[in-house]
Amino acid sequence: MVLHDEQYEAYIQILKEELIPAFGCTEPIALAYAASIARQELGKNPSQVRVEVSGNIIKNVKSVIVPNTGGMNGIEAAVAAGIVAGKPEKQLEVIADIRQEQIQEISAFLEQTPIKVALADSEYIFDIGVILYHGEETVKVRIVGEHTNVVLIEHDGRRLLEKEIAADSIASSMMDRSVLNIQDIVTFADIADIEDVKPILDRQIAYNMAIAEEGIRSNYGANIGKVLLHTYGEDVKTKARAYAAAGSDARMNGCSLPVIICSGSGNQGITASVPVIVYARELGIDQDRLYRALLVSNLATIHQKTGIGRLSAYCGAISAGCGAGAGICYLYGGRAYEISGYEVIAHTLVNSLAIVSGIICDGAKASCAAKISTAVDAGLMGYAMYKQGQQFHAGDGIVAKGIEANITNIGLLAKEGMRETDKEILTIMTGK
Question: Class assignment of domain 22-162?
Answer without folding.
Answer: alpha beta
